[in-house]
Amino acid sequence: xxxxxxxxxxxxxxxxxxxxxxxxxxxxxxxxxxxxxxxxxxxxxxxxxxxxxxxxxxxxxxxxxxxxxxxxxxxxxxxxxxxxxxxxxxxxxxxxxxxxxxxxxxxxxxxxxxxxxxxxxxxxxxxxxxxxxxxxxxxxxxxxxxxxxxxxxxxxxxxxxxxxxxxxxxxxxxxxxxxxxxxxxxxxxxxxxxxxxxxxxxxxxxxxxxxxxxxxxxxxxxxxxxxxxxxxxxxxxxxxxxxxxxxxxxxxxxxxxxxxxxxxxxxxxxxxxxxxxxxxxxxxxxxxxxxxxxxxxxxxxxxxxxxxxxxxxxxxxxxxxxxxxxxxxxxxxxxxxxxxxxxxxxxxxxxxxxxxxxxxxxxxxxxxxxxxxxxxxxxxxxxxxxxxxxxxxxxxxxxxxxxxxxxxxxxxxxxxxxxxx
Amino acid sequence: xxxxxxxxxxxxxxxxxxxxxxxxxxxxxxxxxxxxxxxxxxxxxxxxxxxxxxxxxxxxxxxxxxxxxxxxxxxxxxxxxxxxxxxxxxxxxxxxxxxxxxxxxxxxxxxxxxxxxxxxxxxxxxxxxxxxxxxxxxxxxxxxxxxxxxxxxxxxxxxxxxxxxxxxxxxxxxxxxxxxxxxxxxxxxxxxxxxxxxxxxxxxxxxxxxxxxxxxxxxxxxxxxxxxxxxxxxxxxxxxxxxxxxxxxxxxxxxxxxxxxxxxxxxxxxxxxxxxxxxxxxxxxxxxxxxxxxxxxxxxxxxxxx
Lengths: 421, 306
Fold this sequence. Notes:
The complex is a heterodimer of chains A (421) and B (306). With 421 residues, chain A is an alpha/beta fold. Chain A has helices at 2-24, 45-61, 74-86, 101-106, 114-120, 129-133, 157-162, 174-184, 202-214, 232-246, 271-279, 313-326, 329-339, 346-349, 352-361, 366-371, 384-399, 405-420; strands at residues 35-41, 65-71, 93-97, 136-137, 140-141, 144-156, 192-195, 263-269, 284-287, 299-308, 375-376. Chain A has 18 helices and eleven strands. Chain B has 306 residues and is mainly alpha-helical. The interface between A and B is large, with 41 and 37 residues.
């Protein structure tokens, strides 16, 4: 029996050993050791390959740091970040969706960058103000934009031709868009004319905002304290979606029809251009997203912003040096050419080499570059994710005919205002 | 020797001098891990449920029962509870009933019993997320196999189609839930059925009882402890449904598949309301606990009277 107890004790110890080992791994850094940084981001595919290549090159050129590039999926990044912060195991720096920046900046987990920016003499006025504004909280900058994108019209030229439409003269107004969509739709084979994002959540909201802005409306009031979408423009946008459903130009279905060759047109992001150029089994082109005849051109911008979470000051400095390098004009041009992201700085957008590269290699990116000047950003409020969900839930009810359009906008306004109060 | 007597004898044997400490040692790792990974989080979430916390910042503020009050007043939460209840009851009742029927059929000496067992059991060991992705694909209009097959059989999909349809989405999710569990239920039932002495059926047959009468008066009563176990397990598991819904419908359309698990996930990891999310967790816990207790009492009393 004695022996059994000893064996058991050893077994128990073996079980607990890895945990104890974790505690004892307090590493004493010596002077020669490079500073190790962990960098989280969700870039995958071509973008993932490019960021890995850039990190590798940076590591090679800077032997004093060693950055580990870690991919974390878009859906997991925020929850994982939250758990890591709670567990005291946060990455040193990360790049994440611009929509999350207000919540992240407000969390106290990010390091303000103002002192670093000043010390390294970085000219932040070269970044587009709309992009920078989501990182600014209490006059402190908490992140820098690394990439951006916007939404424009994609056209399946095969389906267009089959329906007797000419993709080289794309629709220029909502009326033309609706007419082309109705003509191109083919319910028998499940082809829709214009694909809409109708599942609740940010997908719906950020598409709908393009229509809302196009009609001259706004999502929140200028001071970000209340809803502004319950307006004539909001009603016009919602009625336009409903008219697409009523005319058979769109049938409620899961997002993704365009990629399957089952939609003539779709409003989608510049990030689709690279992948589709490689693998779409049909011919396609792009055009600027139309607005109503009396409206204004508009699109929605997305993108990733880099920020620092490191506690240690040497690590903060090293992380800043990398971010400063990654967002510099030269690296940005290389990044944008490889990934088809839109420029985050004016000096990239006005760079002749970059523009002639686009003209030669992928002119289908031109509508996106041209329209970036009309890109709005989603309101930088902390509660944005929840706002977006409750808003889209009400719009969905209108699309399903459960509420009439005005009723849905009223309900969405009430829900959004109660979240903002 | 009955099972109880055997345990008692084993205990008396173990109780001899110092062996209790060996038993304690053997149990310690499991108990410690259970305490760290189950008990502690449970208590901590109880603490969080009376706080307001965004999950990041070091300061949490005490809000008393506000989080619970907000839940009671929230129409979204009530809807989610309703949907979860509907899902749970359907999966528990239909899933257990169907698996009993299949188990009895399998037990009646169908040839290739093992192959059937494998076929029914495969979903149990399949990753739920992977299975849900496949099911979602199967139901895709125009290209999904299930959708195409149904069209070939002359069943035109409703408009909007399956997973975007307010009446169909939850039914399909339930079907996947039942499909996922049924193999487990069948295996447990088969074990139970094989424990029913053949003589009972032989005697009943001699007395002139038909197939239905034998099933009704021998199989069902003798198998009822297993039924109780399976129903309780189904209810507990189904009440915590999250992954299937998250992958297949994300709660849509118009909230018809929005279960509490999904709402909890959103509150915690999308809106950063850890307090509200913890309160939801405790409401679920309380409901599951109460339901289990009631079932235990009800079935337990019935079993004692048998």
